[in-house]
Amino acid sequence: MKIKSPKDFWAGLMFIAFGLFFLFVAHNYKMGSLTRMGPAYFPTVLSSLMAVIGCIVLFQSLVLKGEKVPAMSIRPTSIIFLSLILFGYLFKAIGMALALVILVVVSAFAGHGFKFKEVVILSVVMTIFSELVFVKGLGLPFPIWPMFLN
Asked: Distance from CA of residue 20 to its chain's centroid?
């Protein structure tokens, strides 16, 4: 058989791999029943569906013509990884608000066009949204600002 859609082929394999991995992990927990679900019930159903979707996508890659997988650029991936490391490292020291601004600004350099106005708006919206969801909504004790400003 010839692979007619490499993009779908690799996507299908990825879905199958993740589905089987989490199915294996959920196997260690108690399943329960439909009326009294155990901790393994939802992950088992979800990972099984993911593996089935992966099989469908994989089969389609052998039947339908599709795009080739584009070459992966290492620069954007490295910049995103660096921004996540910076966020994790700076979160406690300078607070969630400033760490999120740094995350968004550094991540923006991974894209094709850096527009300062859009980056500022996105960082403000992300900071407000994160504060409302995580601090106000979920009640997590995240420092919003650096300690010397509180």
From this structure: 19
